[in-house]
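Researcher: I'd like a structural prediction for the single chain below. Treat it as a standalone chain; there are no partners to consider.
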Amino acid sequence: MKLYLIRHGETVDNVAHNYAGSKDSVLTSHGVLQINHLASHFAHKGVQFTHIFSSDLQRAFNTANAILSKQGRQENLQIAKLEVLREQDFGSLEGKSYERRPRDFKIGGEPGLAELEAKSPSFRPVESKESLTSRVDNFLNEHLMPIIKSKGEVDTNIAVVSHGMTLNRLWRRLQVRVPGDLIKFAPNAIAPGKPMNLELTRRWSNTGYLELQFLPLESNATIESGIEEVVKEGIEDFEAVEKLKGWMILIRSVDNRAHLQGVKRTRGGVGSSAHDEKQKTMESFFTKRQKVE
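Model: Treating it as a single chain, here is the predicted structure.
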């Protein structure tokens, strides 16, 4: 069984370096190119998803929908669109540039917005870490854990399409459900020369994905050689949660962007602007027409 934690494609706010948590930011033309390559990548690898979960914000849902569109004939496969998978709400900073944040701002929430609060009567605080944690715990307990426990077949593939902060928190909360010595790195999961440290697994590029394999403990002796122990620094010691017993997690790839090799941004500002169905990408300009014989 495999779990793919996937970040959405590039958005106009990503390009503008603006905070967009609960804001329903749209994909750029380059972002649409990214998600189409991601979808084709999974199809070419033969990854047949049995479950697809997505944030209800359009940047994530459109990414999930692109993946679904390349999955072939799977009549029962649908996207579970969930509000709990939304990005962290940045409050009064939504839509504002990173550069305009107050000096005392901390991404985890209060304290840190005193300057904004003093200046604006309509001030909204950043969603707290506790609130975000509660949301991802809800997803894990109600959606993901039951699948892992009841459908641990080899051909179970789960896609979760969400946002950087939310995926980070979800992965951390999944880690505390499995003993640290049962989280391991597969060969080549991380670039050569970098330490096998869990901290490196908590970053997502646009359409980058973390690939995790769940293996029953009794199969531990039969998995391939070269598996490396994780550096256990950074595993959070949260309050007791329901443990995922009888499983180990093998980290297969981190921020995988193999699908973006050779993908170029359309010039003239088109690639960085909001996607328009009428726009042509660089690929469409250079696609050769089939000769009529």
